């Protein structure tokens, strides 16, 4: 017998289920008034520095159906690449947003400031990106992914460079459709499957 | 800023399998391809913080929050309490915990829920709180009812409360479900069964906690939650490159 470790194990995940909106976006779910407003409707306040952008897309299941019940959260740095809560961060950027697929069409919209490149350990530089977490009925543990931008230099990004099958890199890159407008679809399974992260 | 070190890589063995034919919806909503594993970066090691100013006085009281205190919800009154810890056993203070659940009859206040059990006019079904400096949280609520759901021919959800926890890093984000000690439906539930290790599923079963029950008022159930921890060593800042 060896000594006992005193580390704990992470609590197992369970699906957020079909009624996740009741708990996380109750006003959206029809429980108006229980809170003044739903949490984190926007990741920025007026006066946030940088380019304001809008990212729209859909979340598709393995049959190609745009899910109407997905809930997403995003987390990002400010325009200078500084994470909220860190010294020097833009006070008008909370960096966190909770948003949902539309009940009728499945489209989501994230309006935010375009993040800057961020620095990590050992001088690592990450290309501008937004981290995304997706939950819904049938997703047993939340799916992590990232949104990068086609009009940024992604060539030295350490995460993108770890993707062996190069065509799959495109699944993480938002396409620019107009000034300040991007599209980003998420495919949970099958052809064009988004790269999901264990990070 | 002090480098607390990277997040401890997630041990997927404790978690449910993403694809489980017994839970039909997971069949088309689980990735086929392997996840891309990588050491965490500041994108996962930082995360949103929420202050106590966010909370209303009744936000963690589901018995009263829907009616703003005017009338209590129907059902078995319970206190759900516990701690949020990380894998190093340290409390996670000042973190947001959100819950949602069915009413005592097993019905959600949701347009998609058409179960026979009636809505309780005095029950909404969600609550939230922020852990204290020692990682403790408490909710006063009613015990949710079991209910049938469309999956296989005759599947029922055990009594359960959904719980969402943030931690301090976006990579710690977790949603889980709390089950109740002694419920025979846990062993028959295809969603509970997505967790393949019985000892891991047992960690989602809250025991009756009479030490916290208040006589003539409510029973209590204890539910601790463990989030991912950080791998801090004396060597951490000497990493060369990634």
UniProtKB/TrEMBL annotation, chain A:
Highest taxon listed in the record's lineage: Bacteria
Pfam family, one: Dioxygenase_C
Positions of the Intradiol ring-cleavage dioxygenases domain: 38-190
InterPro entries associated with the record: Intradiol_dOase_C (IPR000627), Intradiol_dOase_core (IPR015889), Intradiol_RC_Dioxygenase (IPR050770), Protocat_dOase_a (IPR012786)
Alphabetized UniProt keyword annotations: Dioxygenase, Oxidoreductase
Molecular-function GO term, any one: protocatechuate 3,4-dioxygenase activity
UniProt family annotation: Belongs to the intradiol ring-cleavage dioxygenase family.
Descriptive protein name: Protocatechuate 3,4-dioxygenase subunit alpha
Organism, scientific name: Pseudooceanicola antarcticus
UniProtKB/TrEMBL annotation, chain B:
Domain Intradiol ring-cleavage dioxygenases: 80-108
PROSITE patterns: INTRADIOL_DIOXYGENAS
Pfam families: Dioxygenase_C (PF00775), PCDO_beta_N (PF12391)
Record GO biological process: 3,4-dihydroxybenzoate catabolic process
GO MF terms held by the record: ferric iron binding; protocatechuate 3,4-dioxygenase activity
InterPro entries: Intradiol_dOase_C, Intradiol_dOase_core, Intradiol_RC_Dioxygenase, PCDO_beta_N, Protocat_dOase_b
SUPFAM superfamilies attached to this UniProt entry: Aromatic compound dioxygenase
Keyword entries, A-Z: Dioxygenase, Oxidoreductase
NCBIfam families, per the entry: protocat_beta
Similarity remark: Belongs to the intradiol ring-cleavage dioxygenase family.
Listed name of the protein: Protocatechuate 3,4-dioxygenase subunit beta
Organism: Pseudooceanicola antarcticus
Gene symbol of the encoding locus: pcaH
């Amino acid at each position: 017998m060896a000594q006992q470790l005193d580390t704990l194990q992470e609590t197992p995940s369970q699906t957020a289920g079909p009624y996740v909106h009741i708990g996380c976006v109750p006003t959206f779910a029809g429980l108006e008034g229980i809170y003044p407003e739903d949490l984190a409707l926007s990741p920025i306040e007026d006066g946030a520095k940088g380019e304001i952008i809008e990212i729209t897309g859909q979340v598709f299941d393995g049959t190609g159906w745009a899910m109407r019940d997905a809930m997403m959260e995003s987390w990002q740095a400010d325009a200078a690449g500084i994470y909220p809560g860190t010294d020097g961060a833009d006070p008008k950027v909370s960096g966190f947003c909770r948003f949902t697929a539309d009940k009728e069409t499945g489209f989501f919209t994230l309006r935010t400031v375009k993040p800057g490149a961020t620095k990590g350990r050992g001088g690592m530089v990450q290309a501008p990106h937004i981290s995304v977490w997706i939950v819904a009925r049938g997703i047993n543990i939340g799916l992590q992914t990232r949104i990068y931008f086609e009009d940024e230099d992604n060539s030295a990004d350490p995460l993108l460079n770890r993707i062996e099958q190069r065509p799959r890199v495109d699944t993480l890159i938002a396409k620019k459709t107009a000034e300040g407008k991007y599209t980003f679809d998420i495919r949970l399974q099958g052809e064009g499957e988004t790269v999901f992260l264990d990070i | 800023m002090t480098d607390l070190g990277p997040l401890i890589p997630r041990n997927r063995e404790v978690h449910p399998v993403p694809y489980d034919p017994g839970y039909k919806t997971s069949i088309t909503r689980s990735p086929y391809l392997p996840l891309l594993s990588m050491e965490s970066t500041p994108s996962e090691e930082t995360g949103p913080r929420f202050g106590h100013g966010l909370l209303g006085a009744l936000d963690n009281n589901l018995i009263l929050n829907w009616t703003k205190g005017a009338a209590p919800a129907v059902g078995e009154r319970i206190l759900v309490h516990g701690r949020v810890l990380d894998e190093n056993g340290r409390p996670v203070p000042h973190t947001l915990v959100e819950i949602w659940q069915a009413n005592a009859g097993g019905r959600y206040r949701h347009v998609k829920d058409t179960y026979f059990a009636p809505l309780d006019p005095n029950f909404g079904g969600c609550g939230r709180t922020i852990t204290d400096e020692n990682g403790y949280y408490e909710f006063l609520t009613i015990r949710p009812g079991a209910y049938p759901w469309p999956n296989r021919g005759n599947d029922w959800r055990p009594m359960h409360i959904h719980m969402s926890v943030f931690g301090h890093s976006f990579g710690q984000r977790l949603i889980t479900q709390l089950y109740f000690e002694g419920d025979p439906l846990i062993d028959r539930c295809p969603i509970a069964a997505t967790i393949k290790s019985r000892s891991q599923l047992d960690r989602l079963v809250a025991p009756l906690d009479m030490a916290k029950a208040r006589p003539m008022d409510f029973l209590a159930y204890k539910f601790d939650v463990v989030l991912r921890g950080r791998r801090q060593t004396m060597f951490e800042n000497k990493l060369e490159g990634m």
